[in-house]
Amino acid sequence: MGIALSTAGVTFGYAVETTANTRPTTGYTLIPDIKEIPEMNPEPETLETTVLSETEYKTYIEGLKDLGGALSFLANYTTELETAWAELVAAYKSAKEEGKSVWFEVKHPGLEKSVFFAGQPSAMGLPAMGVNAVLETNLYITPTNAPAWETKTTD
C-alpha cells in the first residue's frame, strides 16, 4: 500500500512563453492565496460501436475527454491576489498579441512531476459576500491544451 499525500505545500503558478509554442521550464510566478484547484481528470466519453451481430452486450470505444470549459480555482480574496491576478491577465494579453501562450503549473512538493497546461485567464470580478465570512473568489482559466504531467520546475 502506498503512502497517502497531503495537499499541504501545493503551489500554482504561471509563466509566459519566451518562444512561441514552447512550454517554459523556469520562471513561473506564484499565484497567492489559492485554496482549491479543480480536478483535471475528466471521464472520457464512451462511443457505442455495437454491430447488429452482437446478441448480448453493447461495445464501446473511448471518446474525447471534456474539462467542461473554464476551470474554477477558489482563492482567498486578498490585495496580493488582486494584484497578482491583474498582472497575470495583463501578461496574457501581451503574450497573445505576440502569438505566445501563458502556461500554468500545479506543483505538489511530494511528487516528481507537475501538471502543466496553457490557458486563458479571465479578469477577476466581484465575489459573493456574506455576513461573518471569509472573502473568497473563484478565478477562471480556460485551458487551450490538455493538461500533462511533466518534470516540475525547480524555481
Shape category: globular
Q: Please trace the helix and strand order, writing H or E for each element.
A: EEEEEEHEEEE
Q: How can the largest sheet be summarized?
A: 8 strands, antiparallel
Q: Specify Rg, calculated over alpha carbons.
A: 19 Å
Poorly predicted parts: none
Number of helical segments with 4 or more residues = 1
Helical content class:
10-25%
Beta-strand content: 35-45%
* Structural class designation: mainly beta
Q: Give the integer mean of the pLDDT values.
A: 96
Measure the end-to-end span: 32 Å
Overall strand count: 10
List its salient traits.
two-stranded antiparallel ribbon; 35% strand; mainly beta; eight-stranded antiparallel beta sheet; single chain; globular
Provide an overview of this structure:
The chain has 155 residues and is mainly beta. 12% of the residues lie in helices and 35% in strands. It has one helix and ten strands; from the N terminus they run E-E-E-E-E-E-H-E-E-E-E. Strands 1, 2, 3, 6, 7, 8, 9 and 10 form an eight-stranded antiparallel beta sheet that branches. Strands 4-5 form a two-stranded antiparallel sheet. A hairpin with a 5-residue loop joins strand 7 (102-107) and strand 8 (113-121). The mean pLDDT is 96.
